Structure formats: structure tokens, C-alpha cells
């Protein structure tokens, strides 16, 4: 059964635009290869971090929304954990949007 998920991850600010695009494609392909459906990917740009992480004060924020049965998340997060580019990541399960009743 597919659920909606959102993954937000922060990349190091000192990598170039091409490396950012490659990282986005890498994590999208891990999900796609394991049966996930990418709904939306937003490149939120470089922002200041609330606190210093690994001697970095800024980071490139990426948000990915996808549908999956949950199995590819572990593989994607393992790749993020092993990557030198990713500072932090978080995946959360989202609620399905409820259809609102239309009053006549």
C-alpha cells in the first residue's frame, strides 16, 4: 500500500550547482528503481542553518515528495548517510489529503 512521504535533506553549500543536480538525480533514481513515484522535488536554495553542523553555517535545502510502500526509504537514507555531500536528512510520512465535502 502506497503512502505519501516527504524527505528534506541539506547538502553542503560548497559543492557546485552541477553536484547539487547530480545529488538530486541520485536520490530520485534510488527511489524510482525501487518502485517509488516521485511527485515533486523542490530545490529550496542556500539558506542559513539554525546552528552549525559539521563546521557549516549554511546549506542547500532540497525537498522531495513521493509515494512509496516504504521499502526504498532505507536504501535512500543509507546512501545519504554514507555521502559526504549530505549534512542532514529527515523523512516523514504524510497524511493523505482528505476530500472535503462540497455543500450545495
Automatic annotation (TrEMBL):
CDD domains per UniProt: bS6_chloro_cyano
Cited HAMAP family: Ribosomal_bS6
GO CC list: cytoplasm; ribonucleoprotein complex; ribosome
ATP-binding listed as a keyword: no
Keyword Ribosomal protein recorded: yes
Protein name: Small ribosomal subunit protein bS6
Name of a matching Pfam family: Ribosomal_S6
Biological process annotations from GO: translation
GO function term, MF aspect, one: small ribosomal subunit rRNA binding
Swiss-Prot/TrEMBL keywords: Ribonucleoprotein, Ribosomal protein, RNA-binding, rRNA-binding
InterPro entries on file: Ribosomal_bS6 (IPR000529), Ribosomal_bS6_sf (IPR035980), Ribosomal_S6_plastid/chlpt (IPR020814), Transl_elong_EF1B/ribsomal_bS6 (IPR014717)
Organism: Leptolyngbya boryana NIES-2135
